[in-house]
Each structure stands twice: as structure tokens, then as C-alpha cells.
Design goal:
Chain lengths: 388, 388
């Protein structure tokens, strides 16, 4: 992890590099509000923002941990561009005289513990999450009562395109978790889960299944530090006590209980699921991956397929009964962006393979701890599910 | 309609009145982001905003057509309060040195042609849209292909709580339209349609039915002026040519074709509907009410129940064949907020009653052209539907 001084130096270098005139082939981001031409992205993957702030003294585009100063034009609009960004989705914000605010031009997404701006940089493989004229599933906003929280919570449930047509057909279920500072909207919105699944199903590449996306922030329960550090590739990191290796201990038990005692029974009672271990998977990104690891390992009678995206991995030492594990678990899938530290994850996957566990490692090219890594991970993971 | 000078005078008076110290019993708005204490509402229904903008020279709370200047505190946060607002939902924004931006503290809603802040003032009757532990329906984000637009569009479909349980049961359908500058998210979000219906159904006050919420802004089609003026209570206003009476002509025909030729067939093919005129209703607010009037009157073989919320009314002179109308139409419902000009609507409803048409007029107390008027309208309208 870079130090504060290193980050500051990187930011200064980025601001300097951003002074180079960009190639003038900007196109509006696909995540802009109707009729808005900015932010825009060029062929260098640089982002240009434009913000009307006639009386401001300073306006910045805050993206990728760099605050790029914008320049005021005669029309009162401030304009400027970043250095090249990775392909895919990026959270960002605008800073107007010290006020950190959403860009009025973009759509909004929940991440970094707030609703804020998002910008999309085209990717060479973006076709797999494109909006196409294929049969579409439905993303259902589904309230459910949690006795533990004494509150009505909300999850989003993706049902595949043929769900309405076959009233007798039952489906496997994937429980798919967001990352730290995100919520139940993340996978459906930033993650483009519905589009990814619709396209995979239309191409016959995956078995249709239901996806349940809930928030792991259970009301009234303290999970751990509000900003989980980027997970290093340390197996079992979530369970080490603070101080030993420096990783704070997360307590996912409140969500584990809501998931197992309330959400899964609710889903099985209200959707046509195949309600058994063989047909139930869990996956998650970042903190959601850590939760997936912790919860599945403690409940192998409930989950048969495990996906950990940028959230650690399962080491042989995490498994107490390898024979039981091999019987129960049909898949362990571990993924990272290429710019993350996936080496230990890869090693752990190979060790599981050698132990006879079906285990897959995937590395997303040229991406970091960001949503394109996770869209691609879902795209790779889904076709492997429920094959037995 | 007030003149520009009148509006400016009203704004000045409001800013002056807002200098009076508020009662210090502020509570956070129920539409704030997680963990945010502002904006907050007190027992006088005044709204207090707090925005961190350390280097700004001026920050304002822009609500109800008044820009209230906020005052900077020593902590760099700007604070201030409005005069009392009506009960219910209000769009608003923050202005930081001339930059019109969403408040980083609130949730966001699509209205006034942009995603922006919303604040909720408690209402004495708010129980009917409260989130309760009753059986809940699902709000389904549903893509559908429009050949006319050559695009995949999106609608939201509310299915009632027992929809999943009764695979043989079929349901009537209400097509429910948003207002100008809004979209397909309005009724489900600002309108709290799901909660209103869940509560009515739990109380046995309405027949369960499906609600389809689509955007009437068809891609590529020009509907009319981007900012429809507040509809005066003029019957048939939507069809008068510009110049005659001053009301610009709206052209809803593109949406009419998408609705009739594409959306209704899609809904009937993909949901368990009772796909006939007797079991199909249409309603809308403001511009959506104008569209409802225009489209239903031209297609009485398709719709049997009509709801126009703050969007005009049906005069006897709008009906060419009164006997046919009385046979086809089971309900004409017209509503206004008490602060709007509903007199002509009321008169028109009475005339229809005298002609033997089942017609209902509803006035929402102490509300203007705003969402509480329309939540209440839906709450009054729903129990009257599909009674035959």
C-alpha cells in the first residue's frame, strides 16, 4: 500500500501529466444523465468534466485519488481532463470551493458510503454487458422483514428471462454480495448483473439461475471499521485478530445470521428456488468476498459453490476436513484485477486443485480494485455454476 | 400564474421570514443518505440544510423557488433554514458559488429533468405510505424492446404480494404515468407506489392489481416544450393548437403508439394480466394526466378506468358519444392539491355525474402541485378500481 507521501507525489504527477492536451475525440459517458454531454471520455481514456460554477474560485474533478483542477471558461463553466483511466466504471466527484459534491451531469451510484457520480470508460470487451435486444430478466426490488433487525429490509432479486413463462420450473440461487461502502444496489447497477446474465443466457453459456443481492450492513450491528482496507492477499485475513498481521477483525456474524436465518428462508418461500445445498452459491467482491469466505466455510451444508472476487482466497489451511470439503464444494472461484495482488490467491487455488477441489483462478486484464474486474468475474463465474 | 416580479417579491419575503429563529426540534429527513443528519425538518415544517464548503463565498438552499442563503460556521459548514414547507416530498438543490448541485446529504430523485435532492416533510396522514411489516409486493425493473424506438426501454412493474403465490391467478392492470421532467422511476420512488398498494391490500381496501410505470419520453420523439407549464384547469387543454388560449400543443402520439402497440402487448405477454378493456386502467399526474386524458379518450376500447391527477379533467364537451362513454367507462377520477386551481375540474366532474358517468373529484388538503397530492390521489383512486 502506498504511503500518504507516495500518494501525494502520484497525484502531483498525475495533475502535471494531465496538462498535456488531450486527443479531441471525446464522447459522452454512457452513465450521464439524459441530454448531458459531460463527463466525456476520449480515445486515450481521459475523462473531461464540465461544471457550471460561475462564482467559484476553484473547481476540481476528483477521480482515482487525484483532484484535477478545472479551468474556468468565459461562459462560467469549468472544464478539465484527467490522465488516462482504466476501462470500466469509476466513482468520482466534483469539488467546488471545498464542497465535495456529486457532478450534476452524471447518474448516481452508491459506493464509498455515499451516493455519488459514476463515469464509464469503454472497454474492448464491453459487449458482454451491453444492453441488447435479447430476452431480459427482471430486477425485483423485494422488501423482506428481518426479525433480528426488527425492520423491513430490502434486497434485489434477478429472475432470469424464462422465469415468468415456466410456472413449474425451479431455479438455483446465487447470493451475491457488494463491497465495503456499497449496498444492495451495487451489483444490479454498477455491476450490470442483469445485462451480464441476460446476455450469457441468450448465448446459452450459463444455466439460468436466480441472483439475490442484499446489503450486508445489518441495521444496529457493527461490522468493523467503516472503511475496510483493501484486502491484501492473505488467506483467512478476516479472522485474524487485530494486531496480528495488522488486519482488523471484521465481525460478519450479524449478516451471517440475517442471511441464514431470514433471507434464505424468505427467498426459498417467495421464489421458485431449488432450496438445497447443491443449488445454492455465494459470491462477493472485496468485503463481500471476505464475507463469502467466512460464511460459506462455516456453513458448507448450505452452499456448494463459492466465489471470492478481490476479497482473498481459501488456503488449504482454512479447510479442516478436506474430504468433506471435496464432497460438499463443487467450485471455488477466486479472482483479482491484474493491478491487484493476486499472487497468493493464485497459489492457493493451485493448492486446492492439487488437493482435488475444483478451483478456478481468474485475473481481469488491466484493471484494479474496481467494478470492471467484478463484472468480468461474474461473467467468468456464472457459466461454471450448477453444472452437476 | 405569478409574474417574474411577483415571484421575486415572494422569494424576498420568504428569505426575510426565514431569518426568524426556528423551533429547535429538528429531525433528519427520512430521505437522507445513511448516517446523515441533514437536511432536517422541525415542527414548523421548516427545512434546515447543512453543507460543508470551507472555501465557498456563498451557499444557498434552493427549495420552493427560493434560494435561502446559508451562513458559514467556524467548522466550515454552512447552515440555514427555509420558511415552513407543505407536508410531503419536495425537490431541492444546493447552490455553491453559482454551481447548482445535489445536496451530498440526501437521496436522489429524478424530477425537473435531472437527478437531484429530495426532502420529506412528515404529514399527519403519512401512515398510508409508511414502510410496515405487511406482505409486500415487488417493484420489477423490466426492460422491453420498442421497435418504434429501435431501443430497449425500461419500465417498472409493481406486482402485488400474492402474485408469486397464485400461479393461476390473473390481475387487472393500471398504467400509471409520471409528470413533466420525470421518468419511469417517479411513481415507485417519490410516489411510494409499492408501499401505498401494500398497505391498501393488507387492509383489504383495494383489489390487488398490477401497476406499470413507464417513461412517456420516447427516444427520438419530440413531445412538446421541455418544460410544460403548470396545467391550468382548462378542459381539453392538451389538444388546443398553440395560440388559441395560449396553451402550447403537446404531441403525445409517439408515446401513445409505444403504449398501445408495444408496452401493453409486452405486459400482457409477460405478466399474468386480465388483458381486456374492463381490467385496464390509466392514470397520471400533471403531464401524465394530460396524456391519460388524450390517450384514453381516443382509445376507450382499451381503457375502462381513468385517473387525472393535477392534469386537467374531462368536460362533457370532450365526449362525442355520451352513451358509448357511459357503457365503456367505469370511472373518471379527477384530483388536485388544494393550492391548485381545481374548480373547473370539480365542475366538470359534477357535470359528468349528472350525465350518468361514475365520476369522482378529490382535493388533497394543504398541498400544491407536488408529490403528496399524488400519493393521496393514488390512495383514493386505487380502491375504486376494477370493482365490477
Amino acid at each position: 500500500m502506498p504511503t500518504a507521501a507516495e500518494r501525494e507525489a502520484q497525484a502531483k504527477a498525475a495533475i502535471e501529466a494531465a496538462k498535456a492536451p488531450p486527443v479531441e475525440d471525446f464522447k459522452p459517458s454512457s452513465l450521464n444523465q439524459k441530454g448531458k454531454d459531460f463527463p466525456a471520455v476520449n480515445s486515450e481514456r481521459r475523462i473531461r468534466a464540465r461544471v457550471v460554477a460561475p462564482d467559484a474560485h476553484s473547481v476540481a474533478l476528483d477521480i482515482g485519488a487525484v483532484k484535477y483542477p478545472l479551468t474556468k471558461g468565459e461562459d462560467g463553466a469549468w472544464v478539465g481532463a484527467s490522465i488516462p483511466q482504466d476501462a470500466g466504471f469509476h466513482y468520482y466527484q466534483i469539488v467546488v470551493d471545498g464542497a465535495q459534491v456529486p457532478d450534476p451531469n452524471s447518474l448516481y451510484f452508491y459506493g464509498a458510503s455515499r451516493w455519488g457520480s459514476g463515469v464509464e470508460v469503454p472497454a474492448t470487451d464491453q459487449d458482454f454487458y451491453a444492453l441488447k435486444n435479447v430476452p431480459h430478466g427482471q430486477l425485483r426490488e423485494t422488501p423482506f422483514y428481518s426479525k433480528r433487525s426488527d425492520a423491513v429490509l430490502r434486497c434485489f432479486v434477478y429472475t432470469p428471462p424464462d422465469y415468468e413463462k415456466n410456472p413449474a420450473k425451479r431455479y438455483p440461487v446465487l447470493y451475491l454480495q457488494h463491497g465495503g461502502g456499497e449496498d444492495e444496489t451495487g451489483w444490479g447497477s454498477q455491476g450490470k448483473t442483469g445485462l451480464i446474465m441476460d446476455n450469457l443466457i441468450a448465448a446459452g453459456k450459463t444455466k439460468p439461475f436466480i441472483i439475490v443481492m442484499a446489503s450486508s450492513y445489518v441495521p444496529g450491528a457493527q461490522m468493523g471499521p467503516p472503511r475496510p482496507p483493501a484486502p491484501a492477499a492473505q488467506p483467512g485475513a478476516a479472522t485474524r485478530p487485530a494486531g496480528a498481521g495488522g488486519m482488523p477483525r471484521f465481525n460478519f456474524s450479524a449478516f451471517e445470521r440475517v442471511l441464514l436465518d431470514e433471507l434464505i428462508p424468505f427467498v426459498d418461500a417467495n421464489f421458485r428456488t431449488q432450496a438445497d445445498q447443491l443449488h445454492r452459491a455465494m459470491a462477493g467482491l472485496s468485503m463481500g468476498g471476505m464475507q463469502t469466505k467466512q460464511i460459506t466455510l462455516a456453513n458448507l451444508d448450505k452452499f456448494s459453490h463459492i466465489g471470492i472476487f478481490s476479497g482473498g482466497s481459501i488456503a488449504s489451511s482454512d479447510i479442516t476436513d478436506i474430504d468433506g470439503f471435496k464432497k460438499s464444494v463443487k467450485l471455488v472461484f477466486v479472482s483479482y484485477g491484474s493491478r491487484e495482488r493476486g499472487a497468493t490467491g493464485k497459489t492457493n487455488v493451485e493448492a486446492l486443485q492439487q488437493a482435488g477441489v475444483k478451483s478456478v483462478f481468474y485475473e481481469s486484464p488491466d484493471t484494479a480494485h474496481e467494478w470492471l474486474s467484478w463484472r468480468r468475474s461474474l461473467y467468468q463465474f456464472a457459466p461454471l455454476l450448477f453444472q452437476e
